[in-house]
Amino acid sequence: MHIALFQPDIPQNTGTILRLCACLGVSAHIIEPAGFATSDRHFRRAGMDYLDQVALTRHDSWSKFEEWRNEAGSRLVLFTTKAAGSYLDFRYQSDDVLLFGRESAGVTEEVVAAADARVVIPIRPGLRSLNVAMAAAMAVGEALRQTGHRIAVETGSREKV
Q1: Would the pTM count as exceeding 0.85?
Q2: Which listed CATH number (3.30.2290.10, 3.40.50.1980, 3.40.1280.10, 3.40.50.800) goes with 2-160?
Q3: Model pLDDT for residues 113-136, shown as the tens digit of each residue
Q4: 3-state secondary structure the chain
Q5: Which of 10, 61, 65, 80 has its CA 20 to 30 A from that of 125?
Q6: Span 70-83, pLDDT tens digits
Q7: Average pLDDT for 135-150
């Protein structure tokens, strides 16, 4: 399972998502350009000492990310407020890439067109969206539940049930 962030621009959210990835054993991808440096204090504070524990790949551009994804053979699942289908109804696969857009602008039409699936986390009418770190936690939790991914409590190691 992978979480990818398209041109993230809020360092605290990115740090929090990378911490989530480290704790759950999920690979993380940052698609550049990001709106901050990895030395940003807010990014480092949100990620804490977990940043050294995450399997992180930085892609210089959308096209470089797409090259990697095509070589890996992974499906791209875009989380967007513009989708019709609920993330709870989607059937995830263990090598899926869960993609989240830039907090201030979402993703480009090129990214939308490349997605194998587009899903939404339903929220109450009249409200715009969830915080991207919260959305990523909900999404990866459901995806891992469906694919049988478990963390062994006694050892902290990953196991497939």
Answers
A1: yes
A2: 3.40.1280.10
A3: 999 999 999 999 999 889 999 999
A4: CEEEEECCCCHHHHHHHHHHHHHHCCEEEEECCCCCCCCCHHHHHHHHHHHHHCCEEEECCHHHHHHHHHHHCCCEEEECCCCCEECCCCCCCCCCEEEECECCCECCHHHHHHCCEEEECCCCCCCCCCCHHHHHHHHHHHHHHHHCEEECCCCCCEEEC
A5: 10
A6: 999 999 999 999 99
A7: 95
